[in-house]
Design brief:
The complex is a heterodimer of chains A (about 475) and B (about 200). Chain A is α/β, with parallel strands linked by helices. Chain A has 16 helices and 19 strands. By secondary structure, chain B is α/β, with parallel strands linked by helices. Chain B has one domain: Aconitase, domain 4 (Alpha-Beta Barrel). Helices cover about 35% and strands about 20% of the residues of chain B. In chain B, the strands form two sheets. In chain B, strands 6-5-4-1-7-8-9 form a seven-stranded mixed β-sheet. In chain B, strands 2-3 form a two-stranded antiparallel sheet. The interface between A and B is large, with 78 and 58 residues.
Chain lengths: ~475, ~200
């Protein structure tokens, strides 16, 4: 019988059928971080339970650590030190692999895991972090869970999962110049709403997906959760295998051949049926930014702020009105005329080496506009080192960007690093929620290219404006 | 875990789409490595005019006298979207919320609720609008009734709606079961699965 990729992954991990549509699934890998993993480990310990396979559990320090030079356990986040030290003690006690602050492999969970080859096609990976869906880009079934479910996975090597419905989103056509994976996912969420993927596991497919490199696929899958999907997924292909080969946790020698032979069976059969299919024509996608307080408030950079009066759905219309007030905007404002005072490149969405190369290419020989605070936070310490080897750090610094240590940093405001009160910020992150990046900060989500171009021009900018001037 | 069977309580309307977990519990309110001490930070950005100084915002629904002792929230699409932080559920629970009725939920949030004895109920938007109207006159008197075993929501007007919930989470809530203990009962089965799995996919071991 024809099967979707998801069905194949579900079946190979199904330990037993529980009631209704719930299955007990075998979990291959668990990742933790100091924000939500600390409480899972601590709670497990106080219940007298053990981590069943510590050698298959990993932990990163990314959420609370500062990204300022010379950082240590002290952090700007109130009581942050407690999270860091509790996590370290619990990780050591449980004998799990910790990528600690001073480890050269330290970084954001969803950057470190693919970089180290911990996530691989066909396996299940969970983490008490919503952006775990990023890792589906390599053909794994990877999804975000809560701390209690993390305890369950740690103690039992399984999870009770309600089986999601299946959706395929096919990206057809060709991407225009200046358009990236970030623009694709913002465009999708803008078109179908932030709840558009609710109840579904989404397989991204089509000619444009095949063209994307692995890091771009990670960006795309990263925001599946902003579409309210259970997770995102891309069938592994020769690019995936080439990306993984030789990474520290990936099988070598004979085992590599065995693994690849298996991975090559991981795709949706031609006749497989999905519960829902969406086709996106990529030729219609422009560089895309958000104007409001939900990722669904996304528009082409060439557009103007919409009028809630034009929205038929009353709840959506009300949300738009609230968002306009919060963002300090009025209908008809041209997006490319919105002045910014902050620019941020970082986060599990867009902080990998390819993102930094794209941004550096735009910043080369240019200057960040006066009055704009611009910050770049590489996704991992290895990305940082690679960028420095390529001289990208000099480009960022010469342009007027701060060059930081790796971590989640200003993707969210935990009381430490943040932008200022009501500051307007263009950001390569994933959430434009109220006060997400600082007190009442007004965040506009965009690709690293758009962030770099906007930083230079001091306003939201169409990256193609700059390219024309080259 | 506490059992959930029937519940009657005051329902407060927070009718907006995409109420995210950052709004439910801002990151800066998560000050301890603990499941406790979060109730005060619930909806801090909306509940307080100045969150740092805890200056109460009289406009916010949960601060109004009519909605004292609220135990049920009514909301729109995609409630609990965003961050996986279970602190959002722990904060709701500590505040006294026992059920959330919304047009849809973020998946991780939904699962976190059922793990902590909070019942998430999906109803159509029209039903939620109706419930809001039926309770609005005097919310303290016009309370909502929820019957989990019967999967029914009863409005003070007498209108009622059936809601869907998967058998497994329903059983966990009704019986107040510890899912880890429940799964560990299948330890033999898991070990047997593991043996076969390790032979089939040796590079993963």
């Amino acid at each position: 019988m024809s099967q979707t990729l998801f069905e194949k992954l579900w079946q190979r991990h199904l330990v037993s059928e529980l009631d209704g549509d719930t299955g007990l699934l075998y979990i291959d890998r668990v990742f933790l971080h100091e924000r939500t993993g600390s409480i899972a480990l601590k709670s497990l310990e106080s219940d007298g339970r053990q981590v069943k396979r510590p050698d298959q559990v990993f932990c990163a320090m990314d959420h609370i650590v500062d990204t300022l030079p010379g950082r240590n356990d002290e952090t700007l986040v109130p009581s942050g030190k407690n999270f860091i030290q509790t996590t370290r003690q619990a990780a050591h006690a449980a004998e799990i692999q910790l990528f600690d602050i001073d480890d050269p492999r330290q970084g954001i969970v969803h950057v470190v895991s693919p970089e180290q080859g911990i996530v691989q096609p066909g396996l299940t990976l969970v983490c008490p972090d919503s952006h775990t869906c990023s890792q589906g880009a390599l053909g794994a079934l990877a999804w975000g869970i809560g701390s209690s479910e993390a305890e369950h996975a740690l103690a039992t090597k399984t999870l009770r999962v309600n089986k999601p419905k299946t959706m395929r989103v096919r990206f057809d056509g060709k991407l225009a110049d200046g358009v990236t994976a970030k623009d694709m996912i913002l465009h999708l969420i803008g078109s179908y709403g932030a709840a558009g993927g609710s109840g579904y596991v989404i397989e991204f497919a089509g000619a444009v997906i095949t063209e994307l490199d692995i890091e771009a696929r990670l960006t795309l899958c990263n925001m599946a959760v902003e579409f309210s999907a259970f997770t995102g997924l891309i069938a592994p292909d020769s690019k995936t295998f080439a990306y993984l080969q030789g990474r520290p946790y990936v099988p070598a020698g004979e085992a590599w051949g065995q693994a690849v032979a298996d991975w090559q069976t991981l795709y949706s059969d031609e006749q497989a049926e999905f519960d829902r299919e969406i086709v996106v024509d990529c030729t219609e996608i422009a560089p895309t930014v958000t104007w409001g307080t939900s990722p669904e408030h996304a528009l082409a950079i060439t557009a103007s702020v919409p009028d809630p009066g034009g929205e038929a759905d009353v709840h959506r219309s009300q949300a738009m009105t609230k968002a306009l007030t919060y963002m300090g905007l009025k209908p008809g404002d041209k997006l490319t005329e919105l002045a910014i005072t902050g620019a941020f490149i970082g986060s599990c969405t867009n902080s990998r080496i390819s993102d930094l190369r794209v941004a550096a290419n735009i910043l080369k020989g240019r200057q960040v506009a006066e009055g704009v605070t611009a910050i770049c936070v590489p996704g991992s310490s290895l990305v940082k080192r690679q960028a420095e080897a390529e001289g990208l750090d000099s480009v960022f610094k010469a342009a007027g960007f701060e060059w930081r240590e790796s971590g989640c940093s200003m993707c969210f405001f935990a009381g430490g690093e943040s932008f200022g009160y009501r500051e307007r910020v263009v950001t390569s992150t994933n959430r434009n929620f109220e006060s997400r990046q600082g007190p009442e900060t007004r965040s506009h989500l965009a690709s690293p290219a758009t962030v770099a171009a906007s930083a230079v021009l001091g306003r939201l900018a169409d990256v193609r404006e700059l390219e024309k001037r080259i | 875990m506490k059992t959930f069977t029937q519940h009657q309580g005051v329902a407060a309307p927070l009718i907006r789409n995409n109420v995210d977990t950052d709004a439910i519990i801002p990151s800066r309110e998560m000050k301890l490595v603990s499941k406790q001490g979060l109730g005060e930070g619930l909806f801090a950005g909306w509940r307080y005019l100045n969150p740092a100084e805890r200056q109460v915002n009289p406009e916010f629904v949960l601060n109004q006298a009519a909605y004292q002792n609220t135990s049920i929230l009514l909301s729109g699409m995609n409630f609990g979207c965003g961050s996986s932080r279970e602190h959002a559920v722990w904060a709701l629970k500590e505040f006294g919320i026992q059920a959330v009725i919304a047009a849809s939920f973020g998946t991780i949030f939904y699962n976190n609720c059922t793990r902590n004895g909070i019942l998430p109920i999906v109803l159509p938007e029209q039903a939620i609008d109706q419930l809001m109207k039926d309770c609005s006159d005097d919310p303290q008197i016009n309370q909502i009734n929820i019957d989990l075993p019967g999967q029914q929501v009863l409005s003070p007007s007498g209108a009622h709606w059936h809601f869907d919930i998967e058998a497994a989470p329903k059983e966990m809530l009704v019986e107040g079961l510890d899912p880890i203990a429940l799964t560990l009962k299948q330890a033999d089965r898991i070990e047997k699965f593991e043996e076969r799995y390790q032979q089939q996919f040796p590079w993963l071991q």
